[in-house]
Amino acid sequence: MGGEGVVTPGEVVGESNQLIAGRGVYLAPNGRTLRASLTGLRKILPPPPDSSDQRSTVEVVGHKAHGAVPQPGSVVIARVTKVMARMASADIMCVESKAVREKFTGIIRQQDVRATEIDKVDMYLSFRPGDIVRALVLSLGDARAYYLSTAKNELGVVSAQSIAGATMVPISWTEMQCPLTGQVERRKVAKAD
Amino acid sequence: MEYVNPLTGFRLDGRRPNEMRQIRGEIGVVAKADGSALFEMGNTKVIAAVYGPREVQNKGQQINNRALVRCEYSMANFSTGDRRRRPKGDRRSTEISLVIRQTMEACILTHLLPHSQIDIFVQVLQADGGTRSACINAATLALADAGIPMRDIVTSCSAGYLCSTPLLDLNYIEDSAGGPDVTVGMLAKMDKVTLLQMDAKLPMDIFENVMQLAIEGCKAVAHYIREVLLEHTKQLECHRGA
After folding, report:
1. Omega before B53 within 30 of 0, i.e. cis
2. β partners of residue B195
3. Any idea where the Exosome complex component N-terminal domain is (chain A) (predicted)?
């Protein structure tokens, strides 16, 4: 059974002594056959060149793409919802460059806002509700929220609105200026690339 | 009453004892759901909609290492001969919801989706016997449409025993005759029975014949469902321009 074709759940797509189960494929209880778990195209991926196991991977590519899920180490775009004394809450909207299907909650703790002088961070001078921030996912966190960090030059507030309602322009890594009124507001600004 | 004509061998609706009703399946009938399907077995028409995998709404019910599967069965007010309002939580609906949930839960690879919830809603639009089986078949199609990983295609079919003949796929009149009604649900390719229900009584050897007939019916439904899935996938490929 070489090559590609459309398979349905339960169909045998390979033998475990020749192929490894990838996405959309599972090992049947008898331990020998690999069966599809999704409806889609059967694809065979070559083995990575530096691994000891030289079997190819068989996977089934379905049509329904499930939404992106934040993983530790991925860069996300989030909108700040609440700013408190020691942490800020944000709704994660994009993971890497894919939008999510349902929003996830993230927390930026006081010690994760920046890399230097972390105990002297004032949350209200770093974020405001409504700011769009680029952050790094530190960990899956607890049942309520992911833990995010903006402690790098390229992380932090990407876009924010001033009190007057205009989109502000970044002028340094701690300040943004409103183009309408000229007022300068303090934020932890991301380095523009 | 003559459920099987002694001379010709035909049933009340002109079928042979081992003949199923005409089946029809359609995918993607509810646009908002993650997966949906319409399944017809003769005059019995059922719609299934699947939402998930999504975040668990009731955190108290969240399971650490697998997905939570919920199922709700309901009959529309206009589904039977007399238009009657059915209470939401009546015993028959609760029992069938439980049966469908257990059947689908055995088939979904729940350990791949921890901390999530899969909702299956099944609604009977027209009831003419075999609603349980039609619901399971519709739920299978809807789950496959939603892209939820499953072990195999679960199909279901019912069989009975009237006028000393095993009959496949009973309709409402044959079902109300008071004879035994055996419902079988099975994983088609792996040849494993996951649901077996019967009401009334049957001697053991006749039961084996009736169950075997229902299993043949399940395999025929599985063959048809597989073709519906392949056809739908080919259409999606066409629209994508692959």
Report:
1. yes
2. B185
3. 6-44
Number of domains in chain B: 1
Q: What is the DSSP letter of B43?
A: T
Q: Residue A188 has which token pair?
A: 């932890």
Confidence (pLDDT) at B242: 57
State the nearest Cα–Cα gap between B226 and chain A, in angstroms. 6
CA distance B53 to B50: 9
Complex prediction ipTM? 0.82
Residue B3 lies in a domain: no
d(CA B167, CA A164): 77
Tally of CA atoms within 13 A in the half-sphere of A155 that contains its CB? 21
Residue contact A37–B145, C-beta within 8 A: no
Distance from CA of B36 to the nearest CA of A (A): 12
Q: Which of B137, B141, B229, B238 to mutate to test the interface with A (most CBs of A within 10 A)?
A: B229
**pTM, full prediction:** 0.82
| Residue A1 confidence (pLDDT) | 39
- Nearest CB to B55: which of A28, A35, A102? A102
What's the pLDDT band for A23 if we cut at 50, 70, 90?
Answer: confident
The answer to whether the beta carbons of residues B137 and B156 sit under 8 Å apart is yes
Residue in A with minimal Cα distance to B230:
A6
- Contacts with B59 from chain A: Cβ below 8 Å: 143
Q: Does residue B66 sit within a domain?
A: yes
A67-76, A179-188, B157-166, B224-233: least confidently modelled range: A67-76
Asked if residue B13 belongs to a domain, the reply is: no
Q: Does B145 touch chain A (CB under 8 A)?
A: yes
Number of H-type helices and E-type strands within chain A: 0, 16
One-letter amino acid for residue B44 of the chain: T
Answer whether residue B179 is part of any domain. yes
- Which structural domain, as residue segments, surrounds residue B188? 23-240
